[in-house]
């Protein structure tokens, strides 16, 4: 709307602005074009929808009618798999003795202990000739 303010505080217009109706007219034109397209091809649209519905119904009937046969075949294959498993001979397990593990290496870790104290600790841990051999005759105390 085009106009100007008058001194009395009222809005004066020079007439109705038809440019504001362009958006409404465009929407009405698009809606009319879509309606014409639908009306022109309505029988094709209905035929395609009818074919889709018929295909869905035929497929559903086929699935429901063949379900027992498919379930029976699946059960037969499932049973055959376990029958073959049952027919395999069970392995015969004989009891064997487990060999005793021998400890060949004794490993002592001494962090922060002086060397002469380490020898004394090892001599107490390993008694007998082994202890004497490690300490080379040193005092065990």
Secondary-structure topology with pairs:
Layout: E1 3-5, E2 11-13, H1 22-40, H2 42-87, H3 115-125, H4 129-135
Antiparallel strand pairs: 1-2
Helix pairs in contact: 3-4
Element order, helices and strands?
Answer: EEHHHH
> Are there runs of 5+ residues with pLDDT below 50, and where?
none
Strand content: under 5%
Largest sheet: 2 strands, antiparallel
Radius of gyration: 50 Å
Mean pLDDT: 79
Strand element count: 2
**What number of structural domains do the residues give?**
2
- How many helical stretches? 4
> What's the helical proportion of residues?
55-70%
Shape: elongated
The strands making up the biggest β-sheet line up spatially as: 1-2
Q: What distance separates the N and C termini?
A: 114 Å
Please identify the structural class as seen in this structure.
mainly alpha
Write structural notes for this entry:
- The chain has 141 residues and is mainly α.
- It folds into 2 domains: 21-87; 103-141, no CATH class.
- It has 4 helices and 2 strands.
- It has helices spanning 22-40, 42-87, 115-125, 129-135, and strands at residues 3-5, 11-13.
- Strands 1-2 form a two-stranded antiparallel ribbon.
- A hairpin with a 5-residue loop joins strand 1 and strand 2.
